[in-house]
Design brief:
- The relative contact order is 0.17.
- The protein is built from two helices and two strands.
- It is globular and about 25 Å long.
- It is α+β, with helices and mostly antiparallel strands and about 60 residues long.
- Strands 1-2 form a two-stranded antiparallel ribbon.
- The mean pLDDT is about 75.
- The protein has one domain.
C-alpha cells in the first residue's frame, strides 16, 4: 500500500505545491501527481487520470 498523505498535517515535503491542494483537513492530490507517479494504485482516487482510462478501455459485456 502506498504511503500517500491524506491529512493536511501529514508530511508534504515530497510533494510540489502544484500536485495537491488542502480541502479542510485533507490533502487532495491532483491529476499531475498521479501522472508523475505513472501508475494507478486502484484506490478509486477522486482525481486519478488512469481510472478514466481503465473505464473507457473496458469492453461492454455481451
Amino acid at each position: 500500500m502506498d504511503s500517500d498523505p491524506q491529512y493536511a498535517d501529514d508530511d508534504l515535503s515530497g510533494l510540489k505545491p502544484s500536485e495537491y491542494f488542502i480541502a479542510g483537513r485533507y490533502v487532495v492530490l491532483k491529476p499531475s501527481y498521479y501522472r508523475n507517479r505513472g501508475r494507478c494504485c486502484n484506490s478509486n482516487c477522486r482525481h486519478c487520470p488512469f481510472r478514466t482510462l481503465e473505464i473507457s478501455e473496458k469492453k461492454p459485456e455481451e
